[in-house]
Amino acid sequence: MIPFDKVVTTERELREIMGTPSTRALQKERPALDEHFRAFIARSPFLLLATAGADGRCDVSPKGDAPGFVLVLDEHRLVIPDRPGNKRLDGMRNLVANPHVGLIFLVPGREETLRVNGRGWITRDPELLQRCAVQGKTPPLGIGVEVEEAYLHCAKAFRRSRLWAQESWPGPEALPSLACVLYDQIKPQGVTVEEYERGIQEAYAKQLY
Question: Per DSSP, what are the bridge partners of residue 72?
Fold first, then answer.
């Protein structure tokens, strides 16, 4: 049972509605990381990593650190260090079954994004991981990506959303804190929401690396 009406089911129908890409949109795609893409990655402190499992279920995971935290080995290979997280390992579990990955790199204040698609592997290479060390701590794993295509994505989504327009940002009171949301969802016994909040903030302070 499809939960929506009037669903588009063929590429032909999709093209009839949306049209075809411009010559520039097609020509901008590159099979490797040129000097412009490398410069973008070197200044990017944040990326989104998209993966899919063997059953097609998808996951998008944020990765972030100081600008240049992604190690570019050459025009076809890069390494994303895995910093401490929640140990769900959704993306990595997907990579074990399906190596296809999609990345979106962001640079603060820059409205264009860099899209990189390719194949990923979980690496334990000590030499590569040592090059990703921060504050004396070497990540236990990294995600090595073989680049198959890369291109800059236009600024329309960022201009519509005004993502970098700080005057349009909601205040901290617009949404409940993570601690409040989790406390409401999980309903832990024997702990207050204030204690929950302190625990999360302590984890942020002590477990970044």
Answer: 78
Biggest distance spanned by C-alpha atoms of the chain: 62
The answer to whether 61 and 91 have CB atoms below 8 angstroms apart is: yes
Other beta carbons within 10 angstroms of residue 95's beta carbon come to: 22
Question: Could you give the residue ranges of the DSSP H alpha helices within the chain?
Answer: 11-18, 23-27, 35-42, 90-97, 126-130, 156-161, 178-186, 193-206
Q: Quick one: CATH architecture of 19-161?
A: Roll (2.30)
Running DSSP on this structure, what letter comes out for residue 99? -
Give the confidence band of 172 by pLDDT, cuts at 50, 70, 90: confident
Let me know: does 52 contact 94? Beta carbons within 8 Å.
Answer: yes
* Average pLDDT taken over every residue of the chain: 96
Backbone angles phi, psi at 14, to 5 degrees: -60, -45
Is residue 62 within 8 A of residue 186, CB to CB? The reply is no
pTM (two decimals): 0.95
Residue identified by tokens 């973008």 is 40
Phi, psi of 122 (to 5 degrees): -90, 120
Domain ranges within the chain, ordered by starting residue: 19-161, 170-206
- The SS3 assignment for 30 reads strand
What is the CA 109 to chain-centroid distance, rounded?
17
DSSP 154: P
- Under 8 Å CB-to-CB from 20, ≥6 apart: which residues? none
What are the DSSP calls for 55-73, one per residue? T--EEEEEEE-STT-SEEE
